[in-house]
Amino acid sequence: MTDFSPLRGAVAGPVLTPADDEFADELSGFNLFWEHTPDVVVGVTSADDVAATMRFAREHSLPVRVFSTGHGSHESLTEGIVLSVKRLSGVSIDPATRIATIGGGTTWGPVIEAAAAHGLAPIAGSAATVGAVGYLLGGGLGPLARSHGFSSDWVRGFSVVSGTGEIITATAEENPELFWALRGGKGGLGVVTEVLVELVPIAELYAGNILFPTSAVEPVLRAWSAFTRTAPADVTTSVAVMRLPPIEQIPEPLRGQTVLALRFAYPGAASEGERILAPLRSVAPAILDTVRPMPLAEIASVHADPTEPGKSTSSGAMLASVDYRTLDALLEVVGPGRNVPLVAVELRHVGGATRTDVAGESAVGGRTADYSLVAIGSLMQPGILPAVDAATTALMAALEEWISPETTINFAGAPRTADDFARAWPAPVFERLSRIRRTVDPDRVLPYGFA
Ligand SMILES: Cc1cc2nc3c(=O)[nH]c(=O)nc-3n(C[C@H](O)[C@H](O)[C@H](O)COP(=O)(O)OP(=O)(O)OC[C@H]3O[C@@H](n4cnc5c(N)ncnc54)[C@H](O)[C@@H]3O)c2cc1C
């Protein structure tokens, strides 16, 4: 049993073991399915706290895993040290350079709000409650993906603590190899205490979502697939076949129904946005239509993602194309009338700016695909995980013909095999990432997936 009292003396934040009352709270996040029971959780408050923890971990041969909001939890953390980064929060904006300095445990919400006050927006993801750093390390495909690319394309620098406890700056000029890796390489590359992100000025935004009833699921899906083939490069859309749960909070006509959510985001004038959206909007009468001139502060409402913690799992892939037959295959597995335990199956139209790498390149996977696929299962019902896994496997098998050779790590879910994991990046990128991980973390203090 490790004596953690020297660590308590070395860091300013709390060092909690299972014997402490605050232990479970510190490890509670968005996904409540996975219970975390490491030897200790350290609530770091600064880069120095992180560095001291890394040195302690190395001396005692203890693995360190990073925990922020828990949106990316796909397993229980049951050993060693968990580094809780939520206290590394905060955002400051320099309107002259349009650079936001974001703490390593900050969620997108405060960044979006602070940026909007200057008429600016971060190229964030679909949910305000996701951690900015965890998201950016995986690349990040959000509601403005087609107009602005992967979110990590907008990162201008990282402050990171290596596996050896060194505090390093990584930018295009300083430690460029690590900078390349951190923009999409995700884990095992150090603990990020601060990230610099370039914000974009957006004068007008026409965005929101439309919910269509069961009868419209198929026609809207088909209209959307046709729409994406000629969609302007600056319009980002996605669709999700959703099974609304049979619970009181859902109003009666919708309770337990299969519906289709269409999301639309166009960073431009409402009149032009309306014109572009018209062919989709007119397919069928909607249950709800929130597409409107949208204040920048509300951009994370486009997808209407859940914000409250719950129990869920997700799996995903990138698709090279989506056509009439892809939709036949999808509807066969998850269409209305199918009894399948997946609460949402989402297709996002990406491509556009996501296809162009940044100057100097970056490690993000998934640039060659035009669509992403994510299947989400609710795990609120005890014992349902095997059924959700089976449904996801059936869906992936049905869509195999369209699945791209490489996926993207933020949407990969919990890779089950080393091959699955490696598929989140192009093969040469995966190999280069492995070499960089060995340099910044020679003793594998930060174990990561199958890397
Ligand atoms: C509701 C929801 C919506 C989402 N929307 C999108 C989306 O639109 N686009 C998209 O691309 N992805 C999306 N994701 C996926 C999400 O980006 C990833 O799950 C991401 O890893 C979450 O990061 P986190 O810090 O919030 O979560 P956590 O589970 O706390 O962290 C996940 C991992 O991120 C790393 N990490 C986090 N903080 C740090 C840090 N400071 N230093 C080093 N490593 C760190 C660690 O490897 C950690 O294991 C979504 C997920 C959910 C659940």
Tell me what the structure shows.
The chain is an alpha+beta fold and 451 residues long. The chain has 13 helices and 19 strands. Strands 12, 13, 14, 15, 16, 17, 18 and 19 form an eight-stranded antiparallel beta sheet that branches. It has a five-stranded antiparallel beta sheet with strand order 5-6-10-8-9. α10 runs antiparallel to α11. The longest helix is centred in the middle third of the chain and has 14 residues, at 217-230. The protein is globular. It starts with a helix and ends in an 11-residue tail after the last helix. Bound molecules: flavin-adenine dinucleotide (FAD).
Mean pLDDT: 96
What's the total helix number?
Answer: 13
Terminal CA distance reads: 28 Å
| Percent in strands | 15-25%
Helix coverage percent:
25-40%
Main sheet specs:
8 strands, antiparallel
Approximate shape = globular
Helix/strand structural class: alpha+beta
The distinct ligands, each listed once, are:
flavin-adenine dinucleotide
Uncertain segments are: none
Rg of Cα set: 22 Å
Total number of β-strand segments? 19
Characteristic terms for this protein:
binds flavin-adenine dinucleotide; globular; 26% helix; 451 residues; 13 helices
Summary, kept brief:
Helices cover 26% and strands 21% of the residues. The chain has 451 residues and is α+β, with helices and mostly antiparallel strands.
Secondary-structure map:
Elements: H1 5-10, E1 15-16, H2 23-26, E2 40-43, H3 47-59, E3 64-67, E4 81-84, E5 91-94, E6 99-103, H4 108-116, E7 120-121, H5 132-137, H6 145-148, E8 155-161, E9 167-170, H7 176-182, E10 191-198, E11 200-201, E12 206-212, H8 217-230, E13 236-243, E14 258-266, H9 270-281, E15 288-289, E16 292-293, E17 312-319, H10 324-334, E18 344-349, E19 371-378, H11 385-398, H12 418-422, H13 427-440
Parallel strand pairs: 2-4, 3-4
Antiparallel strand pairs: 1-2, 5-6, 6-10, 7-11, 8-9, 8-10, 12-14, 12-15, 12-16, 13-14, 13-18, 17-19, 18-19
Helix pairs in contact: 10-11
Flavin-adenine dinucleotide binds next to strand 3, helix 5 and strand 10.
